[in-house]
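Researcher: Here's the sequence for the chain we discussed earlier.
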Amino acid sequence: MIATVLTVCGQDGSTAYNFLNITSSARIYGLGGVNISLVDDDITVVDQNPALLGAEMSGTISLNYMRYLGGSNFAGVRYGHSVGERGAWSAAVQYFGYGSMKEAGPDGIVTGTFSPKDVSFSGMYSHDITSRLRGGIALKAIYSGYADFSAFALATDLGINYYDPDRDLSLSVVVANLGGQVKRFAEHYDRLPVDVRLGWSQTFGSFPVRFSITAWNLTKWKLPYLETGDGSGTDNPEVKDSFGSNLFRHLVFGLDLVSSPNYYISLGYNYKTRTDMATYSRSFLSGFSLGAGLNVRSLKLGLAFAQPHKGGTSLMFNISYNLSDLLNRQ
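Model: Thanks. This is the structure I predict for it:
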């Protein structure tokens, strides 16, 4: 049984730098945490797909903060600007702090505390290939510091988006986190979470709800997990590896109310998040996320909430402002 458990954990945890999969957008977090096809005048969504960046976001600066599980705190800033009529660039810094932890020597004696952290610096460029097709590339430099150890990695995201405004139909493909370590922690090489993702978003007629489905983790089919039931029994954890389980662990579903350009309300469901927390202390809300946003002239506010585990609630907040509008008024 121990060998089976190790196999399951290895299949789903064989890479490092998995913080790169945590969005900095409250809009996206409210839609399940992964969405590469949401076309909107919102610069926060471009961390999912560089092809979502556009000249319409020129002059926009955005700040984000997230209170994550286990006392972790994430924060960052992003700015975007147009390049001619068909291009745009963006720069961002994202910080991932995991709180204070005890530091011990090989003999197990505690010698103090340390605060592990990861920092990602990114630059992005997008270009309108046609009136409906846009491509983008993002380059990321990643620094990690854990006690006396540090590492450095380089990664790139490649994305393309097709958008039909007549049907409000958006289709996207992203290859994420291509790259590797330049400086290792020690002798062991840690792999980046390279991924291929497909996305679809669309509204239908006058119905004021946008539907989204994102397929991710497409570099591997099998994503088994352990199920321990309600925790009241004494049975060993059961490995779940059926066709249906693997299929839905690749999919993230999202709905957002778009009846007005002044606000949105979003709901997401991530089956992988729910099954990753498949223990007796998993909450009913595990896997679900809720978001809301308000647009007031040049100011955009976004808030998202999720409870992946009964013992942990996560909150994310975004604030964006278009500096170009401010300059034009002067």
